[in-house]
Amino acid sequence: MSISVSHITKLYGQQKALDDVSFEIGGSAVVGFLGPNGAGKSTMMKILTCYLPSTSGTASVCGFDTREQSMDVRRSVGYLPEHNPLYTDLYVKEYLEFVAGIYKLKNVSARVKEMVDTVGLGREQHKKIGQLSRGYRQRVGLAQAMIHDPKVLILDEPTSGLDPNQLEEVRGLIKRIGREKTVLLSTHIMQEVEAICDRVIIIDRGHIVADDTADTLRSATQQRETLEVEFDRATEAKLLLRIPGVEKAEAVSNNAWRLLCRADQDARPAVFQFAVDNGLKVLALQKSERGLEEVFKELTKG
Description:
There is one protein chain. Helix 3 (about 90-100) crosses helix 4 (about 110-120). The chain has two domains: about 5-220, P-loop containing nucleotide triphosphate hydrolases (Rossmann fold); about 220-300, 2-Layer Sandwich (Alpha-Beta Plaits). The protein has helices spanning about 40-50, 70-75, 90-100, 110-120, 135-145, 165-175, 190-195, 215-220, 235-240, 270-275, 290-300, and strands at about 5-10, 15-25, 30-35, 55-60, 65, 75-80, 150-155, 180-185, 200-205, 205-210, 225-230, 245-250, 255-260, 280-290. About 35% of the residues are buried. The protein is elongated, with a radius of gyration of 24 Å. The chain is an alpha/beta fold. The strands form three sheets. A six-stranded mixed β-sheet has the order 6-7-8-3-9-10, sandwiched between helices. About 35% of the residues lie in helices and about 30% in strands.
């Protein structure tokens, strides 16, 4: 088992940041670890990387206990914290060589070159870290997290500050890494989760509220679906609300509407019948895919 968390509780004074949290992650996968600000995500990641001890419960990484075998855990995990701590007076290559030395790697130059190429730092490698943009600093952070070839990567907001091109490149990199390693990824970008994560764990106020694939979460919590419909001429909301299954009608443009419908029945045949009964032609009708963002809001709205 790559990561095992059993009944972890963490107290900061009287504040309970984590409350009896348990989950397991085994094998190669990218797992999204989601939650609102203050939900306990970063605390959990710091416990898994031995930065913080838990108040109670146990956690292990690659079979090593985070309390009793912390040095073995640190050798097995690569960590990119939310606030990426870097030595800004060092050059990129110099910094990565320094990190490689801490891990006592052999053939340091070759490994540093491999990491520079992997994260796309080729043109920036001879600059001081303090001269880099935030996006390139994130790449340096990713390189230092991976330089010792860990079996588990724990990434806290790894794409923060990246431009759209960099986002695509780093997402692709994380997805490739997930084929060989376990990646626990914290982010607030739902499109990122849907694009690269094999599994989603959602935490709210210290409790796990969901743990499954994104597709399963979307369908399991779905109580309503959205239909986008356009007629050839105007109609009224009060008439649309008479269609069986339609609970809300929102005008999008002159003749286009967004209909919120019950998920336990398909309202599309009734929409077509409504058009026939009212002398309208349906120019477009499609079911909108329910995004993970809606699921997240439902599960963490408190």
